[in-house]
Amino acid sequence: MEQTQETLLRLRAVEARTGLRKSKLYGMVKAGEFPKPIALTPRTTAWIESEVNGWISARITASRAVQGEAA
Question: How many folded domains does the chain comprise?
Fold first, then answer.
């Protein structure tokens, strides 16, 4: 069985990629609007890069769809 290798992103990397700050990210996680981080240790979390990339792609697609309707 093949396993795909995933990259984990720490908070600063997720903030840099999304342009969102910690409080907004965790608020969106709580609301089910952003992927949940995984626990690495009891005090350390990280996000799965492919899930963050998927969220970014979905936001781009949704934004383009709305812009297309307005045109």
Answer: 1
